[in-house]
């Protein structure tokens, strides 16, 4: 507030002229109790004293004040006179000039109000007292309206074309009272309330928190507040930004259609917009690995817990939960080993309430075959591990237990190696128990925070199945990653043991130690997808050589260095030829023969004529590498129920077909054929011709 002060030392008459704009929205009548003055004069209408037009006043930075002082003026160089201060904080009535006669030794403070509201927006007109008659507004634009009476309600609606986030900005002319004079409600397309807001008279501009929303139509309702109403102008504005990485309300349950499916290793945003708000998300893990939840938020200058996050597995069992403080803007949880599946995140207010600021979530995910898979909290769900291989895990909370099982193929002395990130504490944080298949405890190991790597003494085990249980220890637990490894008494030396693949069966490569331990298997897929290109062709008097393509049963091509192709002699005349593929090398064996066919050359119909109850057809001679011809005719264009006539002379080119139905249309076609070693090979059919028989 700008303040101008005038000090009076003797009885003076102060004439105050205020040049104001024609309309002051929200102006109130000045209430000055008469007992504050020895003599109080009635306020006079002074509109005629205005000398500057409204346009000129708009250009000025503040309202003009003309002060006329009658009597002795104060010593402005010595302002420390003892005076009584009077603060005048009420707005004046429209276009009034107030004359006041005050006692000496009184000081007047004139407060010029600096409004922080937006520039006046588009005025709202018409009846918008219900949702059905709501005024249509645009996002990112300012609109002006006011509460007209105690029972007045104003509705507005706007359209969101794409998912994103919105915030509601409300400004109003200044009211010298801290009471709540406006209430605003934001509704989604189903008329469910997204959020509600209260606005005080002294707070001239308030912007609500961001709210993630899907595309659709939304509504705003504005009404009087709990302290009544003020018929001063207010402005509303819906700030909107399109975004594919913001939550979409309502997502208050895990089964809500608005629950977003998050991509792993990507950041998404949301906000807890009110006390009861809950935000659910889901994400999919395509293969086993480990995850961690990263949570961040805008800074809050308080240490209270304002957010809680819960992580659930596909069966909706809680993997872990987290609390986040206002002044700690980023935190990443421990690594958690998980199998493939769909997982869920729930974010809600914390124990200290909530803050309507943006937060962000990110699921860090790394695929891995050597991480534990939760839940493995009992021996029935123990993860199977191999001897002489390192595996990873974490005790993610106080009650977490990790079970593993392994097999010993023959009597052996083994040792357990346990490692973790170094900790500045000598306390015991991990307890590892070793059980046999009858669940008799064989050994217990306690691991300190300062023991970042420790190999236990060897223990002799008979052939069989054994279990390891990892849990918290006497000093509590640590969520840092740990590793376990069962070391055998000797170092494995693995060699490839190969079972060759054939055209009918898969083979395999197994890394095998002399002690019988194995360390991985590679499948050699059966070579059963062999094709010729082309598989057949038409006789042209030249030698033909088709190419060969060899693939495994998984569809992957097999390198030509693993097989040879043998072609028979000839491959020029009509007939069938066997192309042999023989496999060789370390990984494949066996052979396959594929047949390649050369067909006789085709012919075509030269002429066709009708005869009584029949037709005569002539075709082009094709006597090389043919035995004869076939004529086929039918009443149907697809030659269903057709009749085939063979001509066993490759020199003959005319044939008459009789005993047909007179005055009927027939379809006719011709092809060649060749008999070789008791098998008949046919050319393609010629193009069909039509003929109508005579009576």
Tags for this entry?
disordered N terminus, 1% helix, 6-stranded mixed β-sheet, Jelly Rolls, 6 domains, single chain, 1 helix, mainly beta, 695 residues, 48% strand
The best one-word shape is: flat
Provide a count of the helices: 1
Distance between the termini: 116 Å
- What is the β-strand count? 54
Number of domains: 6
Share in helix:
under 10%
User: Main sheet, how many strands, which sense, barrel?
Assistant: 6 strands, mixed
User: What is the oligomeric state here?
Assistant: single chain
The first-level CATH class of the largest domain is given as Mainly Beta
The CATH architecture of the largest domain can be given as Sandwich
Helix-strand category: mainly beta
How is the CATH topology of the largest domain named?
Answer: Jelly Rolls
Low-confidence stretches: 1-118
Report the sheet-strand fraction: over 45%
- Rounded mean pLDDT score: 85
Write down the Rg: 47 Å
Can you characterise this structure?
With 695 residues, the chain is mainly beta. It has six domains: 2-112, no CATH class; 122-242, Jelly Rolls; 260-367, Jelly Rolls (Sandwich); 379-487, Jelly Rolls; 494-599, Immunoglobulin-like; 605-692, Sandwich (Immunoglobulin-like), CATH 2.60.40. Helix content is 1%, strand content 48%. It has one helix and 54 strands. The strands form 13 sheets. Strands 7, 9, 11, 14, 15 and 17 form a six-stranded mixed β-sheet that branches. A five-stranded mixed β-sheet has the order 8-10-16-12-13, with no helix packed on it. A five-stranded mixed β-sheet has the order 18-20-26-22-23, with no helix packed on it. β39 (507-513) and β40 (518-524) form a beta hairpin. The radius of gyration is 47 Å and the shape is flat. Mean pLDDT is 85; it is low at 1-118.
């Amino acid at each position: 507030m700008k303040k101008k002060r005038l000090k009076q030392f003797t009885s003076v008459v102060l004439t105050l002229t205020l040049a104001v704009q024609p309309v002051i929205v929200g102006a109130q009548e000045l209430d000055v109790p008469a007992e504050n003055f020895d003599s109080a004069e009635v306020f006079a209408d002074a509109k005629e004293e205005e000398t500057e037009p409204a346009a000129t006043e708009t250009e000025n930075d503040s309202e003009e004040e003309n002060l006329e002082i009658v009597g002795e003026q104060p010593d402005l160089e010595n302002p420390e006179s003892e005076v009584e201060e009077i603060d005048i904080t009420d707005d004046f009535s429209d276009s009034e000039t107030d004359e006041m006669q005050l006692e000496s030794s009184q000081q007047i403070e004139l407060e010029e109000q600096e409004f922080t509201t937006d520039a006046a927006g588009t005025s709202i007109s018409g009846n918008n007292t219900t949702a059905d008659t709501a005024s249509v507004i645009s996002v990112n634009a300012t609109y002006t309206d006011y509460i007209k009476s105690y029972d007045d309600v104003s509705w507005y609606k706007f359209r969101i074309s794409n998912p994103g986030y919105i915030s509601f900005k409300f400004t109003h002319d200044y009211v010298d009272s801290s009471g709540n004079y406006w209430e605003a409600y934001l509704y989604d397309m189903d008329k469910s309330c997204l959020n509600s807001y209260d606005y005080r008279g002294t707070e001239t501009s308030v912007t609500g928190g961001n709210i993630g929303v899907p595309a659709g139509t939304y509504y705003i309702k504005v009404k009087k507040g709990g302290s009544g109403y003020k018929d001063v102008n207010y402005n509303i504005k819906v700030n909107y930004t399109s975004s594919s990485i913001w939550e979409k309300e309502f997502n208050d349950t895990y089964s809500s259609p608005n629950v977003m499916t998050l991509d792993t290793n990507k950041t998404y945003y949301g906000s807890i917009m009110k006390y009861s708000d809950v935000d659910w998300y889901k994400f999919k893990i395509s293969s086993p690995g480990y995850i961690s939840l990263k949570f961040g938020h805008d800074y809050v200058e308080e240490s209270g817990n304002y957010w809680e996050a819960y992580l659930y597995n596909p069966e909706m069992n809680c993997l872990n939960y987290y609390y986040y403080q206002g002044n700690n803007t980023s935190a990443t949880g421990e690594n958690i080993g998980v199998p493939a599946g769909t997982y869920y995140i729930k974010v809600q207010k914390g124990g200290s309430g909530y803050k309507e600021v943006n937060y962000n979530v990110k699921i860090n995910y790394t695929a891995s075959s050597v991480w534990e898979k939760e839940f493995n909290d009992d021996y029935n769900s123990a993860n199977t591990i191999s001897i002489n291989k390192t595996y990873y895990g974490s005790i993610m909370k106080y009650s977490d237990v990790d079970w593993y099982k392994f097999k010993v193929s023959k009597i052996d002395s083994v040792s357990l190696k346990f490692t973790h990130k170094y900790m500045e504490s000598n306390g015991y944080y991990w307890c590892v128990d070793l059980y046999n298949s009858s669940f008799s405890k064989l050994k217990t190991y306690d691991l300190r925070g300062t023991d970042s790597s420790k190999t236990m003494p060897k223990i002799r085990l008979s052939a069989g199945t054994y279990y390891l249980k990892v849990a918290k220890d006497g000093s509590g637990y640590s969520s840092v990653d740990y590793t376990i490894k069962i070391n055998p008494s000797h170092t494995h030396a693995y060699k490839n043991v190969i079972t060759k693949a054939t055209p009918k069966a898969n083979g395999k490569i197994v890394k095998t130690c002399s002690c019988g331990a194995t360390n991985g298997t590679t499948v050699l897929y059966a070579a059963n997808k062999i094709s010729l290109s082309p598989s057949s062709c038409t006789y042209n008097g030249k030698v033909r050589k088709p190419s060969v393509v060899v693939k495994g049963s998984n569809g992957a091509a097999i390198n030509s260095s693993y097989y040879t192709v043998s072609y028979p002699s000839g491959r020029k005349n009509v007939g069938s030829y066997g192309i042999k593929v023989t496999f060789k090398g370390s990984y494949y064996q066996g052979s396959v023969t594929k047949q390649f066919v050369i067909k006789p050359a085709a012919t075509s119909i030269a002429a066709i004529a009708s005869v009584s109850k029949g037709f005569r057809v002539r075709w082009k001679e094709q006597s090389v590498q043919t035995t004869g011809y076939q004529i086929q005719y039918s009443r149907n264009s697809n030659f269903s129920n057709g009749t085939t006539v063979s001509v066993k002379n490759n020199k003959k080119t005319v044939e008459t077909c009789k005993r047909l139905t007179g005055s009927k249309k027939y379809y006719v076609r011709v092809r060649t054929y060749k008999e070789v070693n008791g098998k008949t090979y046919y050319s393609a059919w010629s193009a069909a011709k039509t003929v109508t028989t005579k009576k």
